[in-house]
Amino acid sequence: MGKISILIPFKSDHGPRMNAFKWVKAFYKNTFPNADLCVGYSETNPFSKSQAVNNAAKTAAGDTFIIVDADIICSPKVINDSVKRLNHTPWIIPYSKVAHLNKHRTERLLQTDPKWPLDLNPKDKITKTKKNMLPVGGINILSRPCFEAVGGFDERFIGWGGEDDAFAASLNTICGHYTRLPHLIYHLWHPALRAVGNRHYKANYELALRYCKAIGNKMLMKKIIREKNNLLK
């Protein structure tokens, strides 16, 4: 297993998101002491996850990328097992269940030591995402060459919405389809930002639709990738 880089895109709200991020960052630092921990920031307003991930990747030294949102916790064993699987599959989404901790449970967890297993009350009832509504973002595990083959994330996505689907579409087409594993990840509470309220929503939606229509068509997907790469020059 080569060196691992953990890429965390982040923008502070000087409140709940910052509190969650500090805990999550410490968690991955504690559970992966030899990993390259790279936090990426966005210069745009509203926040661009795409730009933040790409900025984190520019500072990364690892052969394997763990791209994880600043509010997501995943078992270290699941991550290590996923990295080993990259010998047999292009990229991995290591979960099939998402446990959403509410405000009270998140605040309580943030008072505990950032370690695994999580110090959660087993009596707590946790809301889980339905299988037919599972996202493709949250945490992605892939090789650095695979990330570079698709030019990273598309920074034309501004604000939330579409960037994860576009990234998945490009990886599935250029590198091969992901493997989704049957594990649970935890999502920490913070005030929600909705994609529909973003003034860039229409442009994001139309761009994501282009990616979706290009799935399976390498020539068309590479054309879209070249467009975004030209914008970054």
Structure report:
This protein is of the alpha/beta class and 233 residues long. The chain has one domain (4-232): Spore Coat Polysaccharide Biosynthesis Protein SpsA, Chain A (Alpha-Beta Complex), CATH 3.90.550.10. 38% of the residues lie in helices and 16% in strands. It has eight helices and ten strands. The strands form two sheets. A six-stranded mixed β-sheet has the order 2-1-3-8-5-9. Helix 1 (16-31) links the parallel strand 1 (4-9) and strand 2 (36-40).
Notable features of this structure?
Glycosyltransferase, alpha/beta, Nucleotide-diphossugar_trans, Spore Coat Polysaccharide Biosynthesis Protein SpsA, Chain A, 4-stranded mixed β-sheet, 8 helices, GlycosylTrfase-like_prok, 38% helix, 233 residues, transferase activity, 10 strands
Blueprint (SSEs and pairs):
Elements: E1 4-9, H1 16-31, E2 36-40, H2 49-58, E3 64-68, E4 72-73, H3 76-85, E5 91-93, E6 97-100, H4 103-109, E7 127-128, E8 139-143, H5 144-149, H6 163-174, E9 179-180, E10 184-187, H7 201-213, H8 218-232
Parallel strand pairs: 1-2, 1-3, 5-9, 6-10
Antiparallel strand pairs: 3-8, 4-10, 5-8, 6-7
Helix pairs in contact: 6-7
